[in-house]
Amino acid sequence: MERKEIAENKKWNTGALFENDAAWEKEYQAVEKEYGAIDVSAFDGKLADKNTLLRCLSLCDEVERRMEKLYIYAHLRHDEDVRDGDTTAALARITSLFSKVFSQFAFIDPQLTALEDATLQSFIDDKDFSAYDYKLKKVAASKAHVLSEKEEKLLALSSDVFGGFQDVFMMLDNANLNLPTATFKGEEVQMSHGMYGVVLHTGTAEERKEWFGKYYDSYIKLMDAITQTYYNNVKKNVLYKTVRGYNSCLEMALFDEDVTPIVYDNLIQSTHAALPTMHDYISTRQRVLAEKEQHIYDLYVPLVADADMELPFDEAYDLVVKGLGVLGKEYQSLLEKARKEGWIDVYENEGKRNGAYSAGAYDAPHPYVLLNYQPTTNDIFTIAHEMGHALHTYKSTSAQPHAKASYTIFLAEIASTVNEVLLLKYLYKESKDKNLKKYLLNYYMDTIRATLFRQTQFAEFEQKAHEAVEKGEPLTKDSLCQLYYGLNKQYYGDGVVHDDKIAYEWARIPHFYNAFYVYKYATGIISAISIVKRILTEGESAVKDYFDFLSAGGSADPISILQKAGVDLTTETPFKAAMQEFADTLEEFKKLL
User: Fold this and answer.
1) 146 — pLDDT class (breaks 50, 70, 90)
2) For residue 559, what are the β-bridge partners?
3) Percent of the chain at pLDDT above 70?
4) Is 330 an active-site residue?
5) Which bin fits 182, alpha (ψ -120 to 50), beta or left (φ > 0)?
6) From CA 385, how far away is CA 379, in angstroms rounded?
7) Mean of pLDDT values over 503-511
8) Cα atoms in the 13 Å half-sphere on the side-chain side of 232
9) What is the phi/psi pair of residue 20, to 5°?
10) Where are the alpha helices (DSSP H) in 471-572?
11) Counting Cβ atoms within 10 Å, is residue 33 exposed (0-12), middle (13-18) or buried (19+)?
């Protein structure tokens, strides 16, 4: 449809941010004039004074709040129709202004780090700094890894050079891969990353085999370049960890997130202990599909077909509200508020950005959710997922000052996954349809496999690759492929044919250029599973703890915030609980066969 054909109550209300584009432009001009060239001489070099530091941090908050609101409006308007040159230009302008304005405050963190320990601690203990105490605690903790001013400038200059390895990979992956054509549904079609995923899910066995082979043949042709690019990226990380005095690249990455390495160790160890269950799941897949052999490219074929709940949007939304009823009337009323008050952009229209997301700003009246709803079971879960993000943002911004409102990436996927798991368990309990029950269990197992086991496999690959370079060992295409192939066999067992070309899969993972990122997907679903279990067994007290978690924003380190919901990732308990959930789901699925 064209956007004008969609009912107003199925579009988000950007007018709650700014009445129209002209109002946005007026505020943009005011912000640019007021903050585009700030005289920071009143702060630069003077942050040891309490009142000066308070004024400086307050000014940063003020500027950021106004610019966030400008940015989110431009972002939403752009995504309504990405072909619109005016909204594209507006988004580019506010993005550029953001960088320009905050580059003027680049002196703050280095100068805070240079303060005497006693001075920093006095600020942390001062109630006037209550909005900034966690930020200052992180600054104090980082002092041991901060270099001299001259050395920090050299590292800052080098970041432009060393930061380009991901860009090189993206060019190789998108511009130079030269994917060929292949057969799908009886026609010769152009291969792409997106179509490769479609074929692995819905293609015939012959099509999956053809696409798998041709897809990795394209990577094999670029292996020398991709290997060197990844090796250089790892060497960059080793250089930074060495000059900053960390024991490992992993320690450095987790230090930046304020997460203890114990969490990473718990993840790897608990996943290894649960691999027999994964192997059982893989073997069960082969039995259900009744194939003589199950290849690695067959693992995405759904075990249960034709179980879609083809509901119109409002019926799907009603179902989500009912499914999340265990979270209480307040949560349900917020869901209804979101539907009635223009939080959600529901349907696909010409030029609209694809996919789904939730986005917000501290001074926005509420978060916003983009959907491209289709009447499928998957899209019903997408509603629950994105509303989990939205209400996490709503709770955090309602409870915290601006400086503490934003939750970290480590915590970002937990609330969304809690909603999905709660909805799944509600649907399973209420359904009388055996096929739908099998579908839901299969959906859950595949989610755990992809989000927990697969991402942990990636996390272990990253760890071992970095450890090799830290020990002075080079990374070659043979060593990396051997490492990845060995992990693939370890994680999936003997129930699948480990086709030789799967050894090259590491070469297509863009997240590897943002080292030690992927493990957060796994810890996110592990945390969500434990939270759901508590809510369903303990009821109101667990819901209250969960709301405390949602309201905490970024007010403390993420491990402590998660403990508010009763999940302690420094222990083995939540990891074992998630692995047991996978095993129990598999056994329930077998009973329905």
Assistant:
1) confident
2) none
3) 100
4) no
5) beta
6) 9
7) 96
8) 15
9) -165, 180
10) 477-492, 519-538, 540-551, 558-563
11) exposed
Contact 359, 371 (CB under 8 A): no
Is residue 181 exposed (0-12), middle (13-18) or buried (19+ Cβ within 10 Å)?
exposed
CA distances from 252 to 248, 255, 366, 391 (A): 6, 5, 35, 32
Residue partners of 497: CB distance under 8 A and separation at least 6: 293, 294, 295, 296
Q: Could you tell me which residues come within 8 angstroms of residue 140 by beta carbon, excluding any fewer than 6 positions away?
A: 117, 120, 121, 124
pLDDT at residue 209 greater than cutoff 80: yes
Confidence of residue 305 (pLDDT cuts 50, 70, 90): confident
Distance of alpha carbon 97 from alpha carbon 69, whole angstroms: 13
Active-site residue, from 386, 420, 460, 462: 386
| pLDDT-based confidence at residue 149 (cuts at 50, 70, 90) | confident
Distance from C-alpha of 76 to C-alpha of 371, rounded to nearest angstrom:
12
Tell me, what's the pLDDT at 155? 82
Six-digit token string for 444: 């859950």
Q: How many residues does the chain have?
A: 593
Burial class of residue 281 (count of CB atoms within 10 Å of its CB; 0-12, 13-18, 19+): buried
Residue 368 CA to residue 252 CA, distance in Å, equals 34
**Minimal CA–CA distance to 482: which of 457, 506, 503?**
503
What is the bridge-based pairing of β-strands 344-345 and 181-184?
A: unpaired
Does position 163 have pLDDT exceeding 80, yes or no? no
Residue 568: predicted pLDDT: 98
Query: Distance of CA 232 to CAs 118, 460, 474, 569, Å?
Result: 40, 19, 10, 32
* CB neighbour list of residue 103: distance below 8 Å, 6 or more residues apart: none
3-state helix, strand, coil in the chain (%, to 5): 70, 5, 25
Look up the pTM and report it: 0.94
Q: Could you give the residue ranges of the DSSP H alpha helices within 36-164?
A: 50-80, 85-103, 108-113, 117-125, 133-142, 149-162
Distance of CA 475 to the CA centre of its chain: 28
